[in-house]
Structures are given as C-alpha cells and as structure tokens.
Amino acid sequence: MTCFTGLSAFPITPTSPEGRVDVAALRALIAPLVTAGVDSIGLLGSTGTYAYLSREERRRALDAALDEAAERVPVIVGIGALRTDEAVRLAQDARAAGATAGLLAAVSYTPLTDEEVFEHFATVAAQGGLPLCIYDNPGTTHFRFTPSLVGRLAARPGIAALKSPAPEAAAVADHLDALRRAVPPSFRLGFSGDWNAVEALLAGGEAWYSVAAGLFPKPCLAILAAARAGEAARARALNARMQPLWDLFREHSSLRVTYAAARILGLCRADPPRPILPLPPPVQDRVAEVLRGLDPA
Q: What pTM was estimated for this model as a whole?
C-alpha cells in the first residue's frame, strides 16, 4: 500500500488534563501537514499518546484528523491495546471511521513470547478488517521483533508493513537486508527514530515515520527527497541542520520535546498526559533556542 511509503508525520494529540481531546488544536496541528504534502499522517502513535486515551477519545481524535485530512492524505492510526479483543475493536472503529491503515504495537504488562505476539497480530488482522503496519517499538513495549517473526507475520493476509527503529549507520544495511530476506517484495519496510532515519532512507528504507515531521514537515520532506534521489551528501547536510533537535530527542525523548516545541511555537497549550511531566524550564529554554536555529523551509 502506498500509505506505507514516503514521509509519515506523527503529531501529538492535545488533550485536557482529564484526557479529553482538544479537537480544534489537533486539527490545527494536522492542517499544515496536509498542506505540506506529507505522504501520510500517523495519528495516535507513541507521540500521539494512544496508550493514555480511552476508546471514545481515540475515536474523537480520529474523526477530527479524518475531517482535516479530507481524503487528501491517508491516515494511519495507532490501535495498540493490552488485550487482543480491545485491539480488534479499535481496528474496527478505525475502519468504520475511514482510516487507511492501523499501526499495531505489542503492548503488554506481562512480557510476551513470539508466539503470543504472532497470535495477537494474526487475530487483529483477521478480525479488525484494517491493513496493519507492525509497530516495533522495543523502547516502550520491551519486545523486539526479529526478522523471522516479521517474516511469519508478513505472510498473513492484512499485515502489510513494518515500522522499525532505525539502527545506527554502521548496522542499518545489515538490518535492512535481514528484513528484506524475510518478507515478500510487496511488504513495506519503514523506519522511525528521527536521528538515524537519513541513513536508513539512503540504505533503501521505504518510509520515514517521523515525530519531527509532525511539526516540521518541510525540512523532513527535503531530507526524504534528497535520499530518494540518491543525493547522499545533500541528504546528510540537510539532516545535519536538524541535529540539535535530534540531540534533544535522544536526551529528553521526542514526546516531551515535541510537547514543549508545540507550546513554544504557539500551536497548542497542552501538556503531556500525567504522569509524564512537562520539561523543566531550563530544558524548555534549550528547546526554544534550538527552534530559533531551525530552518522551517
């Protein structure tokens, strides 16, 4: 599916302290992504704090995003949940609302085995009725998808893509090669982790699932375009301009930094959901300084 290629922009989901989605603020975040021409919008990803929202609030967020995208940009929506039956219901909700695809993580409290994750994904794919992207996010879920497991899942109907953390530059080619040998040619391999994404794209990654693109789509689109054209030096030079932001992401988490950046830029006033705290004022000052140095064009 074409929604699993190119630049997928992942915005935050502004909410009240009680977890009520601020629909107007969410639409204001999504509108410039549509205008910039991103290839898809990744709604309710980790930066979109899907795990902190009720089923009803997830649906409100999705309806708002779909209204703003107005069929011009595909919407991939996070449907992760602790229980398989709940993930199925979330997938069915997303399909009924008009989402293009679902993003499913191996969310757990008790650590999961490969077989448990396989059954979870196979069931959601079969019963949810929504094309799925495997969301490999070991930093959050503490479960890592091996190429072997990805290959097994890729053989199941309805499982079409992988969102995997981009490894360091020295490891990305081998990582991508191992995945390619495990999956059919139609299965799409994309990467997250903005700070390593440029090398993953240059190595042949088909999608960039980007937190930064949720606020700064234009410079991210420029990096992607250079990588697609094989202009490695230009792609790396453009990426170097974003390095101060990548450094903040790695030090303080992209979620916390993005909430601070959205507030500093005047895009919304929301804080991350508790127990996550806003960045302390000295770090927010650093974020503001980095934002002043970025070239949004």
A: 0.96
